[in-house]
Amino acid sequence: GIRLEFTRNGEWKEVDCRNYEVPANIVPAAIAKYVSDNYSGVRILQIDSDRYDYEVRLSNNLELTFDKSFNIIDIDDW
User: Fold this and answer.
1) How many C-beta atoms lie closer than 10 Å to residue 31's C-beta?
2) Are residues 41 and 33 in contact, defined by beta-carbon separation less than 8 angstroms?
3) What is the pLDDT of residues 16-75, one digit of tens each?
4) Between vectors from CA 11 to CA 59 and to CA 1, what angle results, nearest 5°?
5) What is the pLDDT of residue 74?
6) How far apart are alpha carbons 71 and 7 in whole angstroms?
7) Distance of alpha carbon 58 from the chain centroid
C-alpha cells in the first residue's frame, strides 16, 4: 500500500503511505516540526518534493506546501 517515486539520481521524489504515516526519517526536520507544532496528533500521509517546493498531505485532510527553505507557502483542503 505504499507508493514511492525516485529521481534519476536515486533520491525520493514522492512517498505516499495512503492511510499510514510517512516514516519520520524521510520527512525534513523543519517540516516535521511545523506539523507537530501546528497540528498536534496529525500524521503525514504523503510527501512530494520537486525542485521548487515540498507538498505534504496530512491525516486531517489538509495539504501543506513549503518552499525549499521550509517556509509554509500554501494550505489547502483535499
Assistant:
1) 17
2) no
3) 999 899 999 999 999 999 999 999 999 999 999 999 999 999 999 999 999 999 999 999
4) 40
5) 97
6) 23
7) 8
